[in-house]
């Protein structure tokens, strides 16, 4: 009998101790701190859903919540300036090259913020050998970049904003989020006509400046009929490309059967390469050349896009080496390649060339870079063909 009482008392004591431990775990503040520390080490929470066909607003909506990262080249409503493991950047872009910039990282990154601009080649927008713009210089603390037109010509420039949900740098010391460093980057752009003597500032909230004006459409090109869908896509005015790669029938299989996207893709392909999958423009290697090391049907410019991501996603060679970007392949000065361009890693460049000389891989890369045919702005042919 005494043994039964002893066992019963022991069981009650054990139950009581278990309840006390449970209460302690639920209320212990150190347990919450541990959870927060683990969350912090894992980085920012995964961003949610985003429609890349949405037109970016002039001013981003603060606290937009969840956005799914998309390949570079898309447009997004940008999240607010953030802390943590993020890198953000604003650029003034002309001819798909960053001319002036400011970049910074969150408080959980070790990279230095900065504000500046490119060399003379980068500031010479019309290629006449003289500088056309000046860029503001600074520590990056103001998180803005200012461009001033010192020429007698007007230029259509873009204020581009980049958000990388990670700590990013090209040289290991300074923050950077553009230049193909992150294929999942969020990007938003705003086109502006920079008139002679005008100074405009690209900030996280959009363009600032009293002399800004929207680009003036070129008259006399007809009025393509808009179709339903986000952004009212229209068919361009150029001739469609030839078979077997650039014709509409072939491209329909890559653009989900969307006739307008396939027709625009066909026109871009025709203008860029004439349908020749082996087309190459390596003008950057020549004195006085252009910023081109462009390959294949859609002239994918390897000055910006030769990277480990390209090889992993768009190559048949099963690349499994260390991550790299175009700055590991070509010498850069600031945000622009040095001119004439200097090749740093011929092996990696050759792998990127082989990948983009494959017509199927080149088209697949184009689908990604154009955000599935919704943004053709990276191609100069889009402006010629009046593709919106």
List the helices and strands and how they pair.
Elements: H1 2-27, H2 29-42, E1 87-94, E2 97-105, E3 114-117, H3 120-123, E4 133-135, E5 144-149, E6 155-164, E7 186-194, E8 199-203, E9 206-208, H4 248-252, H5 259-273, E10 280-281, E11 294-295, E12 300-301, H6 302-305, H7 308-314, E13 332-333, E14 336-337, H8 346-357, H9 359-369, H10 380-384
Antiparallel strand pairs: 1-2, 1-6, 2-3, 4-5, 5-8, 6-7, 8-9, 10-11, 11-12, 13-14
Any overview of this molecule?
The chain is α+β, with helices and mostly antiparallel strands. Among the domains are: 87-208, no CATH class; 248-383, no CATH class. The chain is built from 10 helices and 14 strands. The protein has helices spanning 2-27, 29-42, 120-123, 248-252, 259-273, 302-305, 308-314, 346-357, 359-369, 380-384; strands at residues 87-94, 97-105, 114-117, 133-135, 144-149, 155-164, 186-194, 199-203, 206-208, 280-281, 294-295, 300-301, 332-333, 336-337. The strands form 4 sheets. A 5-stranded antiparallel β-sheet has the order 3-2-1-6-7, with no helix packed on it. A 4-stranded antiparallel β-sheet has the order 4-5-8-9, with no helix packed on it. Strands 10-11-12 form a 3-stranded antiparallel β-sheet. The longest helix is centred in the first third of the chain and has 26 residues, at 2-27. It is globular and about 100 Å long.
